[in-house]
Amino acid sequence: MMDLYQMKTIFLLLPATLLSAALASCASIKSTQPNVGAILFEENCQRCHRYAEDLREPKEFLKRTVHYGGMDMPSFQSVLTLEEEDALATYLSTL
Ligand code: HEC
Fold first, then answer.
1. How far is residue 49 CA from its own chain's centroid?
2. Helix axes 33-44, 82-93, angle to 10 degrees
3. CA–CA distance from 79 to each of 35, 46, 47, 62, 65 (Å)?
4. What value does the CA radius of gyration of the chain take, rounded to a whole number of Å?
5. Measuring CA to CA, which residue among 38, 49, 47 is closest to residue 89?
6. In the structure, which protein residues have their CB atom closer than 6 angstroms to any atom of ligand 1?
7. What pTM, to 2 d.p., does this model score?
8. Tens of pLDDT along 52-95?
9. Under CATH, which architecture does the 33-93 domain have?
10. In ligand 1, which atom is closest to the CA atom of 85?
11. How close is the Cα of 15 to the center of ligand 1, in Å?
12. Whose CA is nearest to atom 23 of ligand 1?
């Protein structure tokens, strides 16, 4: 038979457990691609392209441009991994 102390413990722990589960799922949402892309934009592109919205282009075009560079734009193939290029292109193309 549960005593009062045990019951209190259960009722105090249950909400805490649910809350931490909810927070954990938020944290995993935060680490999905668009936010990684936003950080990559700030770190690599913003100094020349001030607004991410200006680079809203088809994903494949973005990947190609970032990888190979342009006339005056530097290539990022030795700066970013293919995965990062993909995350960045996903972010910009879906703005
Ligand atoms: C050193 C400055 C510089 C940096 C850093 C830079 N760009 Fe560019 N970018 C340019 C210039 C200049 C052009 C104009 C076209 C050319 O050079 O061929 C351009 C053109 C582009 C274009 C094609 C034209 C357009 O406006 O749609 C895209 C897309 C693009 N950049 C995306 C990026 C992304 C994404 C990054 C970050 C990984 C980035 N750029 C970083 C200078 C830069």
1. 20
2. 100
3. 19, 15, 15, 15, 13
4. 22
5. 38
6. 44-45, 47-49, 55, 57, 62, 65-66, 70-74, 76, 88, 92
7. 0.75
8. 999 999 999 999 999 999 999 999 999 999 999 999 999 999 99
9. Orthogonal Bundle (1.10)
10. 38
11. 49
12. 65
